[in-house]
Amino acid sequence: MFERIVVALDGSELAEGALAVAGELAGRLGVPLHLVRVADTTWLRFGANEAALEYAALGGELNAEEAAARGYLEGVLARLVGADGTNGPGAGVTTEVRRGFAGRELVAAARSTDLLVMASHGRSGPARLLLGSVAEEVTRRVAAPVLLVRSPGA
Hints:
five-stranded parallel beta sheet; about 20% strand
């Protein structure tokens, strides 16, 4: 049915809740997990536009964010694989750090034969308008099916 399950991670507990769901699905379906984190610093200081992304890259912030994203994914992978390195839901898991805008990069990371699993805060109304929604952007644009895992408090 699916070639792999792609999991969007941002370092939050909410996103890691989606990882638990994705791991269980991967085990039941017998498909590998592919963990993706996007290095995107434009929201920190510059705003979300192409010029801001280029400026972040020139200033070194994007390189630092990319290194932090790699370290984070290595830690997640180590927890999944387990102490002996051969067992657990982490066997066969791949990781990828992408650079750019989160929504756009998650769409690019998922193939039509994948299942994309990601967390959503479940915000609506003014909160969603003010904070934006990567999940909404991705579900509108991605060719792959998407499983949204909502926040427990949503």
